[in-house]
Amino acid sequence: MSFIVFLILGALAGWLAGNIMKGRGFGLLGNIIVGIVGSVLGGFLFSALGLQAFGFIGSLIMATVGAVVLLFLISLIKR
């Protein structure tokens, strides 16, 4: 069950980050991939800053922040 929640969290975080950064999502699979990679990056960033995320909403915020940073870094590389 936690794997399904992890995928849902990744999809939501990827969709939110896509809407924040470029105004639309990336499709279901793209959102999941961006959200999962973003959650790893967000976990690293939050721990480096000494922050912690609790619960589903906290995890969603952390993953979304990480996904936004990921999309920002990708946009810098593409230029």
What would you say this structure looks like, in words?
- The chain is mainly α and 79 residues long.
- The chain has one domain (2-78).
- The chain contains three helices and no strands.
- Helix 1 (2-22) packs across helix 2 (28-49).
- The longest helix has 24 residues, at 55-78.
- It is globular and about 35 Å long.
- It starts with a helix and ends with a helix.
- This is GlsB/YeaQ/YmgE family stress response membrane protein.
Present the secondary structure layout.
Layout: H1 2-22, H2 28-49, H3 55-78
Keywords:
3 helices, 79 residues, 85% helix, single chain
User: Helix tally?
Assistant: 3
User: What fraction strand?
Assistant: under 5%
Rounded radius of gyration (Å): 12 Å
Number of strands: 0
- H-E string: HHH
Pairing-aware structural class of the strands and helices? Answer: mainly alpha
Separation of termini? 40 Å
Enumerate the spans where pLDDT stays under 50 for 5 or more consecutive residues: none
Large-scale geometry: globular
Mean pLDDT: 89
